[in-house]
């Protein structure tokens, strides 16, 4: 037996469905979900193996599949609300290797914004003051007096062996000009493992730019682009 559950970006529970064999004692030990992938539309794809008869429909309807062997493979698709879109099975000879888990696409990073606005949750990394930020400051602890700004993001998780070089950043002014932003650190917020803080260095070219839109990329996957103020 297995289950599929969905949570929002804040870790809040949205829904869950469980699936298992019908009327065959011991079959639950031979029903395994081995892989999960999510597409850009929020649809979930589950693959694995099963034995006996299993109902893949979490609603009051039924979508029954009956195995022809001991370790039949299955693939089921569910929409973003957990409703069954399709399911199918394929008999496999025994012994059967465990299905290879499907790769999970990298979710898009999400920069946090202030409630009901497009303004980023952003702080001067030294003074902890919010925007508008000066490009040059006298509060830095180093000889480089350029302001460092810290943004906060969801879905930014480094893989084993990776460093912050897999994260890039940019700003775009109201004229559409693009300014690369140097990423100086990426790390988890203490006591909040689901939240990542990203520290950027403002370039001289942004002086007096006013409101600009900032965004990051994780392994090429772009985030949203909220606003910060530059003075």
Describe this structure in words.
By secondary structure, the protein is mainly beta. It has 2 domains: 2-90, no CATH class; 110-230, Sandwich (Immunoglobulin-like). Helices cover 0% and strands 44% of the residues. The chain has no helices and 17 strands. The chain has strands spanning 2-7, 13-19, 32-38, 44-50, 53-55, 64-66, 72-78, 84-90, 110-111, 122-124, 148-154, 167-172, 178-189, 192-201, 210-218, 221-222, 227-230. The strands form 4 sheets. Strands 9, 10, 11, 12, 13, 14, 15, 16 and 17 form a 9-stranded antiparallel sheet that branches. Strands 3-4-7-8 form a 4-stranded antiparallel sheet, with no helix packed on it. The radius of gyration is 24 Å and the shape is elongated. It starts with a strand and ends with a strand.
List keywords for this structure.
single chain, 231 residues, mainly beta, Immunoglobulin-like, 9-stranded antiparallel beta sheet, 4-stranded antiparallel beta sheet, 17 strands, 0% helix, elongated
Gyration radius from CA atoms, angstroms: 24 Å
N/C terminus separation = 58 Å
The best one-word shape is: elongated
Low confidence ranges: none
Structural class category: mainly beta
Give a count of the beta strands, DSSP E runs of length 2 or more.
17
Structure annotation, total helices:
0
Total domains: 2
CATH class of the largest domain: Mainly Beta
Mean pLDDT: 85
Spell out the helices and strands N to C.
Answer: EEEEEEEEEEEEEEEEE
